[in-house]
């Protein structure tokens, strides 16, 4: 029954997407030509039927793009933000293909303005449609409609973690019917036997599983066995599949793998990558590098008057060079010189490299305090971005001395060196900057590394601007 429901939901999404795209086109046409908001392009325009025919011909491209970005996959666990990102990515790719098709078909009179407005309106309508659908499904599941009937094999602390998540997320629509103890008649630990969530459900011995599956309609079985019990795993899966029941494993090693593991193959031998890094993909590397070059050049042009003023001010207010170069550790632990406007008095670099900047640091000049607080001292790093030593967005680079120290004391610290360091990052826009928790910064850096997308980079860039360059933790 649940699989029939999933098919029905998928078909509904498919039909709704087609209707929404056609409706987006009609709104765009009416806004541009019906209301004459863009009268300058009316002269010599193609007829409505030509535009409409092209849109209909392009609908399969949009649907294929939506399918490619998993927009028709079940969204039982899906967050709204994740769906929004997928819609924008899929719609952007489909629209880009649309532009390429128009170019090669030599439809030069097809309005570019209409295409831009259609892209914006279709994004808004598709996102609205998906959010409404998610909310409707969540509401139905909370009311007991479209529930998935499940059982759990295993009764241990891993089971408890699953139960806690199921309890917190009623909108997932799971109805747990029973728990099967993996150790037969062996009594549960006092911690498990006294837990309210464990006590709430009826428990059976593992020997009773096959008979239970015969007599009850079960949609899915969650297996939460400990590593020491994995010899039973194949037997459990065989029993589930013999009765046509889907089996899912909550691995005992999930703490060591990312939330979305990347599985590779070595001559049909599956290999789980402990950390999947999207920026290892050549296409993603290329997109990020192009983004860095275009935006850094644009920023250099925009901020060049400010950089000239700061450079002159540094020269006139204190002795020493305008640009301060300091060795930092970057991609693949490669060292490079990072540029900054000098904000401190000149001291021996061997002493300086082992000193952490603090509030009211006596080494800072008066001008230095201001340009550090406003982040203007970081502007020369735009040239580091152009050179390829850095990226606009990424984990902030650190000095070799501190890298060696943090490597000893902070687990996973060195993971940040698997991507290019950045001028700003997910940690910085979340307030972890300056003399703040290194552990929290690394958590943010790892989240960024594992969840990178061009949209996430754009989001961080906008948050950096929106929240201002002035930061209370910058000094």
What does this structure look like?
This protein is an alpha/beta fold and about 475 residues long. It folds into 3 domains: about 1-140, no CATH class; about 150-255, Rossmann fold, CATH 3.40.50.720; about 280-465, no CATH class. It is about 50% helix and about 10% strand. The strands form 4 sheets. It has a 5-stranded parallel β-sheet with strand order 3-2-1-4-5, with helices on one face. The chain has a two-stranded antiparallel ribbon with strand order 6-7. Helix 1 runs antiparallel to helix 2 (about 50-70), helix 1 packs antiparallel against helix 4 (about 110-140) and helix 10 runs antiparallel to helix 13 (about 380-385). The termini are far apart. Pfam families: Bac_transf, CoA_binding_3. Keywords: Membrane, Transferase, Transmembrane, Transmembrane helix. It is a multi-pass membrane protein. This is UDP-glucose:undecaprenyl-phosphate glucose-1-phosphate transferase.
Task: Summarize the topology.
Blueprint: H1 2-34, H2 48-68, H3 80-104, H4 112-142, E1 148-153, H5 157-168, E2 174-181, H6 190-193, H7 196-199, E3 203-205, H8 209-215, E4 220-223, H9 233-242, E5 246-249, E6 262-266, E7 269-273, H10 282-317, E8 323-329, E9 335-341, H11 349-352, H12 366-373, H13 381-387, E10 391-393, H14 400-409, E11 422-424, H15 426-429, H16 438-450, H17 454-466
Parallel strand pairs: 1-2, 1-4, 2-3, 4-5, 10-11
Antiparallel strand pairs: 6-7, 8-9
Helix pairs in contact: 1-2, 1-4, 2-3, 3-4, 10-13
| Shape label | flat
Strand residue content: 5-15%
> Which structural class do the helices and strands define?
alpha/beta
Number of domains: 3
